[in-house]
Amino acid sequence: MAGGSFGPAGVAKERAQQYKGRLTSYVIIACTVAAVGGSIFGYDIGISGGVTSMDTFLEKFFPTVFVKKSQAHESNYCKYDNQGLAAFTSSLYLAGLVASLMASPVTRKFGRRTSIICGGLSFLTGATLNAAAMNMAMLLLGRIMLGVGIGFGNQAVPLYLSEIAPTHLRGGLNMMFQVATTFGIFIANMINFGTQKLNWGWRLSLGLAAAPALLMTVGGILLPETPNSLIEQGKKEKGREILEKLRGTKNVDAEFEDMIEASELSNLIKDPFRNILEKRNRPELVMAICMPMFQILTGINSILFYAPVLFQSMGFGGNASLYSSALTGAVLFSSTFISIATVDKLGRRALLISGGIQMITCQVIVAIILGLKFGNQQELSKGFSILVVVMICLFVLAFGWSWGPLGWTVPSEIFPLEIRSAGQSITVAVNLLFTFIIAQAFLALLCAFKFGIFLFFAGWITIMTIFVYFFLPETKGVPIEEMIFIWKKHWFWKKLVPTKGEGEIINSVELDENVTEP
Fold first, then answer.
1. DSSP secondary structure string, 427-480?
2. Inter-helix orientation angle 253-266/236-247, to 10°
3. Which of 18, 146, 227, 399 is least buried, going by the fewest C-beta atoms within 10 A?
4. What is the pLDDT of residue 3?
């Protein structure tokens, strides 16, 4: 059935209370190794900003920017405004966007591990090209290969983690992807600090991306495939064997039955991308677009990409700017553990809303300080500089427990199996599209809006916080193959999800009322 309108959407009945098993060492090892895929994404985010502020790199590839940077009379906000420099950063994300769509059929037909391995090999190639770059063409080709690696990795790793993890711990274990991402950012900042004074420091910074890429490739080879993927491929006995190892018990009948039902429907769907456009999948499609879009429109990537540039623009010296960006990287890494500890207790909505409120407050305070105390040919006083760094760190802290990890976790856990690979591809593609747009436009926006750039992002955070309050149901504790039931119980989405009379198989028992009107 190629994207037909009728048929079951998910499993036929809720069996969550019958799920058995415990957190096994097998799960911990598999999730840890898989999550390394996030570190390649984080490493690139962290390394790009530092490298683009290194004089030796700018002098070789962007001499115009190097000259502008050294001109004292240049506007503080505009000294780095150069589309070529922005293209160096953002070309990777455009390539990743295309690659993430290519990864969907690979992930569905050949499994999550195959996409993870493809991503690792592509990133390894890109890191080698960047480290050896002799001209702009070689540099951009390397960035494109890095983008292909990120496209495949970001498409497959969150799915892998969601499918491997036990239901009651899925949020925390899925966030290991974000832990690896933030750890990659922190390590990149430390490496930039160590290499900034070396003439060839930028080559070392870019080339060391090969380390996480190698780990990701080897990890992909050694990892077990997810039971969901094996069953979808018709390997039911192997799928059950892996499921029993993951759960540490032979009593996995309920979870296995859910996977079988989801797989039977999935195999009827020949075109997942067409199927995801059906009305009954509208809630998932909206989340696949809005969650990653909002994650980027918090402005976090702009701060992480360009932290050294941003702090230098505010009048911090070269060393001080790298210190400050290293500090933000450390805060982001540590804050993710707050989310891991609380996401399966407090739920996704509470973290997203509280994080949004704190981010709005910090953005507005930074905008006021810069608007009143900072301008062309004017540097911040020491006291206000410290206050700006504190506010940015509090902003990063809030992002690290909310939109950072949950922008990946929520989309990866809501799709029924028949559209899961397509849905995750759309999530990654939208994320990388907006990453590309913001990365390409940020330096120009900083030049045009000046301190208003922080108000621009604060406005978007306000919108996304309202969106979560009204439209995102709580997914805490809901089995991944039973997500269809949360939309039926939501005050808005239940209007779009078909009922029994419209050709869907639904549970004949009373639905558990976890999600109601906000």
1. HHHHHHHHHHHHHHHHHHHHHHHTTHHHHHHHHHHHHHHHHHHHH----TT--G
2. 140
3. 18
4. 36
**pLDDT of amino acid 77:** 58
Q: How many residues are recorded in the chain?
A: 518
- The tokens describing 272, both together, are 């997942």
Name the β-bridge partners of 378: 375
Complete DSSP assignment for 257-321: HHHHHHHHHHTT-S-HHHHTTSGGGHHHHHHHHHHHHHHHHTSHHHHHHSHHHHHHHTT--HHHH
HSE of 333 in the Cβ direction (CA atoms, 13 Å)?
Answer: 22
Whether 189 contacts 50, CB under 8 Å: yes
Averages of pLDDT over runs of 10 residues in the chain (518 residues) are 38 60 83 84 81 83 76 56 69 88 91 93 94 90 92 90 86 86 86 84 92 90 91 91 90 88 81 88 94 93 63 62 74 90 93 97 89 69 78 92 92 88 92 83 77 90 97 91 88 82 40 42
Q: What is the pLDDT of residue 213?
A: 92
User: What residues contact residue 201 under an 8 Å CB cut-off, 6+ apart?
Assistant: 54, 56, 194, 195
For the chain, what is the radius of gyration of the CA atoms?
23
pLDDT, averaged across the chain: 82
Please state, in angstroms and rounded to a whole number, the distance separating the CA atoms of residues 130 and 146: 9
SS3 per-residue string spanning 337-353:
HHHHHHHHHHCHHHHHH
Q: Which of 288, 350, 295 is nearest to 475 (CA)?
A: 350
Count of beta carbons in the 10 Å neighbourhood of residue 360 = 21
Q: Which two tokens stand for residue 33?
A: 């190794």
As given in the structure block, the two tokens for residue 280 are: 């009954």
b/e per residue 386-403 (b: at least 16 CB within 10 A): ebbbebbbbbbbbbbbbb
